[in-house]
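Example with several molecule types.
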Amino acid sequence: MQPTSHAFKQNAHEAIADAKLQQALGFFQFGQAGLAERRRQAVAKLPEFDTLRDSAKAIKDHTLAHLDWYLERFEKNCTEAGGHVHWCRTAEEARQTVLEICRKVGARTVTKGKSMIGEEIAINDYLSENGVVPIETDLGEYIVQIRHEIPSHIIAPAIHLTQKQVEQSFRETHTHLDPARQLAEPRQLLDEARGILRQKFLDADVGITGANFLIAETGTSVIVTNEGNGDLTQLLPKAHIVLASLEKVVPTLEDASTILRVLARSATGQEMSVYTTFSTGPRRAGDLDGPGEYHVILLDNGRSALLGTEFQDILRCIRCGACMNNCPVYASVGGHAYGWVYPGPMGSVLTPALIGVEEAGNLPNASTFCGRCESVCPMRIPLPKMMRHFREQEYERKLSPKTVRAGLALWAFLAKRPALYHRLTRLASSILGRLGRRSGSFYNLPLAQGWTGTRDMPAPQGQTFQAMWRARRAG
Amino acid sequence: MADPAPRPRVGLFVTCLVDVFRPSVGFAAVKLLEECGCTVEVPEGQTCCGQPAYNSGDRADTKALAKRTIEAFEKFDYVVVPSGSCGGMIKEHYKELLADEPDWAHRAQHLAARTYELVSFLHDVRGMRTVNSRYDGTVTYHDSCSGLRELGVKQQPRALLRSVAGLKLVELPGAEVCCGFGGTFCVKYPEISDKMVTAKTDDIDATGADTLLAGDMGCLMNMAGKLKRRAMERGGRAVRVRHVAEVLAGETDAPPIAAAKEG
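Resulting structure tokens for the full complex:
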């Protein structure tokens, strides 16, 4: 997909003016029984949560330090179990590999479990253009697909919509059903989607899922879902394709279990997701079900270039979404404003890391560094610090706006010269203090419209502390 | 916790916003520090901790400012800052910023170990549990992000506020959610910042408190400016906004932040 991250400001402006979106985003406001609150409660019930975070972080740090070794081990064990591993350097290579597999089995339709890598390589558009029909089977993904949108959240793809909008989309899409049917209840929407998807599961020739983990010691891929759609997607068709990026690998089953203990709690506040599915190779002789072929796409797409850099820590991310669930900026503008696949704080690091700071430089800037994302991240990823590193890159490469750089340069020049600085601050404080004395604040200040457009600027008291202090000492 | 030095020398890092906008906060801090047995000095070389440059990606200027601050303050027993974000900058970020210059990194670490946000210094280091002041009003408290998450400032201001005569403390729902200030963020992304401070002022209004306190001038100016604008647009009186040090020190003669002089 064509990113619009460069237009973040405009996207945010439109998002804030969109009343329906704002209604849907009410879910993320503090005090709502949203995902952030559910996470908080789940964490409060598990005294060893912070210790588990340390263990989970250590597992990923270790794996990333020996990534080549674990990936090759995964490949070996997956191949021994009858699977095929496809190393794909770019999104284009991954798309072509998926299409080749689909063509080989003569696929007309493909069912899909939820996969952010699928979004990253825009597999749906590619398959459609090449005559293969992709069908999303996760309810949220299905809703987003019939609306020709993309997910606005990595675990809750349709969270930007109101229930009323979903009902409307179902009525517009499912025209073969009785127009007078009741659809006002979430359960009714769910049942309708399930009824429609059931036949698609049975008809599909290929099933594509993502992977929450790849386990090196067994060559297994793991997915977690709440709807069971992932199981139907991968078990019923002739071929199962797993879309996974390199950093999904962990050494052992035990390691995956450790990380699973923080994953669902951080994401939705569940102790575990409803389904945790382990897949090792295709159907074996004597198995009652399972795909005839099992393929794993191992996608790099810029990740290996992050190893050994100040951005390596983002590769620990397990896509739980806790950072965005707790982000006041995400809660204000929603996920689409970020302009590519990954929104919120993790997206504000991963997007510039993968598609470049020239395109996505806005994202790491659009943060107050409040630090809430890092405080909830189960993998202890220093998100604000990495956003600051991108700001440093922009500054060094002179990508940040000229006015900002000029203002900063002037300010820094003064701040490094205390005597001059104090003379000027005394003057400014005195002038502004006099002008603002009556009302105590300014309704409008030239050069500060960004501030005074929506709030008053408090007036200074009139003298600087340092001048008063000196006077007091002298007197 | 007992302090080894009988009368420690404290260097007050006054912060650029307190210096220019609200010196009364600086004097309130001095009063509190003297009350708990410290000798307070205000070194002249100080300007700004460097946060605006640091968060704008300008590492070279940040380093220059960090070194100035270290030079001006390393002779003191303690450095006390009436701001969580400036305190966090000195205590948490200087070390990392100067990590590739071993001599300076060492000095930064030495300074970090003795740097404290004002209220946590009073409570945790000096063992202050009560203050001798009075404030008649219902007060709510916003936890500024850096103080809360970088320095662990949470219970200390509440504990001391409970000892203020006449003061009733009500909790602010979402007290730990950012107000939308974020330094240059509020002017770089004014619409998002406004959305955030609007949600914050809704929460403040819902408490029914007549006074809002916090420990960071940036956040206070943002919230006070929004509360005042809303009161103007909707009619009615804006919630009074003050730095927590003013109330703890009983120094509340100056009008609240963004408010006109009364009478």
